[in-house]
Design goal:
Elements lengths: L2 E5 L3 H13 L3 E3 L8 H5 L9 E4 H6 L4 H4 L5 E5 L4 H10 L3 E4 L4 H17 L17 H13 L6 E4 L6 H10 L8 E5 L5 H9 L15 H4 L4 E5 L6 H13 L1 E3 L6 E3 L3 E6 L3 H6 L5 H7 L2 E4 L9 H17 L5 E2 L1 H9 L5 H15 L4 E2 L26 H12 L5 H8 L3 H11 L17
Parallel strand pairs: 1-2, 1-3, 3-4, 4-5, 6-11, 6-12, 7-8, 8-11, 13-14
Antiparallel strand pairs: 9-10
Helix pairs in contact: 14-16
Length: 451
């Protein structure tokens, strides 16, 4: 996992930057010590970081010359009070980028990825696999890394398949970082929670002919011109938006809503889904011609249960973030907890693992985390029996239905969602879509007879 150094004295701003970076698959390092000053940065070996994200005002006020203290390391300056003169001065001194705070997550992630690509181009001291914002050395992950290295430098569209919570967006970011477009932005959009009409405006923009010019709005396809657009949960995209997206892929051009003007776009499209697109095509919910355009190259992201001891490497990385976030530096996993994590099948994958560890860190009173605080079934996991020859594999939706029906009597809605690695809102939406009504709770007491 790529680690980025943050130099920001303001605790709230530092927490915001940490949240943005971690949500985009980067890990975060900070200078040691309660007081951030030049000495604390001098004591660090910064040569292994692909870039430094530093506060423009914080470094100036504390006398920290981040350019002198981090020679050869790209510096992204974050300005609480952006100023044109300060930006010009920073760029003259060698800043890789100058961004306002609060930072746009995609903009900051793209700036970091440009730094990574530039260091790789110049022969910086970064191992190839460190460019991938993922953790794990198991055979399935090694195969995944190799496939990313082969596919990344091309301009082919890529369809990433995998269960929910496996890290499909991290794979997309690794593909972008390996491509010739690495210095351009990568923009992400999750198609699942966005209403159909809004998602079309988000993608294609809006420019009504009878409105003022200042009301026109660029879509994400235009914003990602020259770079990469990642569409997560592509199976949720409506048929009308699918037709417009197919046009973009076929002709390399688009029209904003309400406009007759055709605009050229040069975008690499990466999509992801956990759904069975073949079944959606059969049911008339997904266009077959679009599917062939998207599925030029396919990548399968392995579920956590197939990655062996990677679960412990991931757990340690997640625990390190949680320790720093909550100030519990002495916490560690007990041996029974480590064994429980190895035995559990993790139906919610990495997302469920993150939820379990964060909950355990919050609730743990001692130094060693016991297995019961992880709130997982610590019993040995029995591998599933192989299906008979020719039998269809159980779909993720079938698994969801069977899991909910099997556990809804013993678990609350919050616990069900946590076990599945999804939010309560997503659980409710899937119940509605798959027609799995919640069981009515029994009355708290006998009804009183009228007096």
């Amino acid at each position: 996992m790529t680690q980025v150094l943050i130099v920001e004295p303001d605790a709230a701003a530092r927490a915001q930057l940490r949240s943005i970076l971690e949500s985009n698959g980067f890990s975060v390092a900070e200078p040691a010590g309660a007081a951030l000053d030049a000495r604390s940065l001098e004591s660090m070996d910064v040569s292994g970081y692909p870039c430094v994200v530093a506060s423009a005002e914080g470094c100036r006020d504390r006398g920290i010359d981040v350019f002198a203290l981090c020679p050869g390391i790209p510096v992204i300056l974050i300005a609480h009070r952006p100023d044109v003169r300060a930006a010009v001065s920073a760029m003259k001194r060698g800043a890789a980028d100058y961004l306002p705070l609060p930072a746009e997550p995609d903009e900051l992630a793209a700036a970091i990825e440009r730094c990574i690509a530039e260091r790789r181009r110049l022969g910086g001291d970064l191992a190839d696999r460190q460019d991938f914002p993922m953790v794990g050395d198991s055979a399935p992950m090694q195969a995944l890394y190799e496939r990313i290295r082969k596919i990344g430098p091309t301009d082919s569209t890529v369809l990433i398949r995998g269960e929910s919570g496996t890290g499909k967006e991290l794979v997309a970011r690794a593909l972008h970082a390996c491509s010739r477009r690495a210095n351009a932005p990568m923009i992400s959009l999750n198609c699942a929670p966005t209403p159909p009409r809004i998602i079309e405006t988000e993608l294609f923009g809006y420019s009504p002919a009878d409105a003022r010019p200042d009301t026109a709005r660029r879509g994400l396809l235009e914003a990602a011109d020259g770079g990469t657009l990642f569409l997560d949960e592509i199976g949720e995209l409506g048929l009308e938006a699918q037709a417009r997206l197919l046009r973009v892929l076929q002709a390399g051009e688009l029209r904003r809503f309400g406009s007759t003007e055709t605009l050229p776009v040069d975008v690499r499209l990466i999509t992801a889904t956990h759904r069975d697109l073949d079944k959606l095509i059969t049911n008339g919910q997904f266009r077959e011609d679009l599917y062939y355009r998207l599925n030029v190259v396919a990548i399968e992201v392995p579920p956590l249960r197939e990655r062996g001891e990677d679960v412990l490497k991931l757990a340690e990385a997640i625990l390190e973030r949680a320790r720093s976030k909550l100030g519990k530096q002495s916490l560690h996993f007990s041996e029974p907890a480590r064994q429980a994590m190895l035995d559990y099948r993790w139906p919610g994958n990495v997302r469920e693992l993150e939820n379990a560890i964060e909950r355990a860190v919050i609730l743990c009173d001692g130094d060693g985390i016991p297995p019961d605080l992880l709130a997982i079934d610590a019993g040995p996991a029995r591998p599933p029996e192989p299906p008979p020859p020719g039998a269809e594999q159980t779909s993720l939706e079938d698994y969801f239905v069977s899991f909910v029906l099997a556990h809804q009597d013993s678990l609350t809605e919050t616990e069900l969602a946590e076990k599945l690695g999804i939010s309560r809102k997503s659980l409710w939406e899937r119940r509605q879509r798959l027609n799995i009504p919640r069981k009515r709770t029994r009355q708290r007491g006998p009804r009183r007879d009228a007096q």
